[in-house]
Automatic annotation (TrEMBL):
GO terms for molecular function: exodeoxyribonuclease VII activity. The gene is xseB. This is Exodeoxyribonuclease 7 small subunit. It comes from the Bacteria. It comes from Paenibacillus cucumis (ex Kampfer et al. 2016). Heterooligomer composed of large and small subunits. It is found in: Cytoplasm.
């Protein structure tokens, strides 16, 4: 993966699904299975990072005291007034 151009989220997920399918079949030689597993772990990390980046960009619009306000994704006021993350 080091020499490959960076994949977008959808491409990385498709490649990861392909790897999972190959490994689930069970007819892959051990050395190839290890390589596929390592590549799958890298793709999984890439997808996780991309999701975190998107999550930071998303803002929720909430109504507070009759006004609309923007809040970062992943935070919400519960009844106690504490912010959940």
């Amino acid at each position: 993966m080091a020499n490959e151009p960076e994949l977008n989220f959808e491409e990385a997920m498709a490649a990861l699904e392909d790897i999972v399918g190959q490994l689930e079949h069970g007819d892959v030689p051990l050395e190839q299975a290890i390589d596929l597993f390592q590549r799958g772990m890298k793709l999984s990390q890439l997808c996780g990072l991309k999701l975190e980046q998107v999550e930071r960009k998303i803002e929720m619009i909430v109504e507070e005291d009759g006004e609309l306000r923007k809040k970062p994704f992943g935070t919400a006021d519960d009844e106690s007034g504490e912010i959940n993350e």
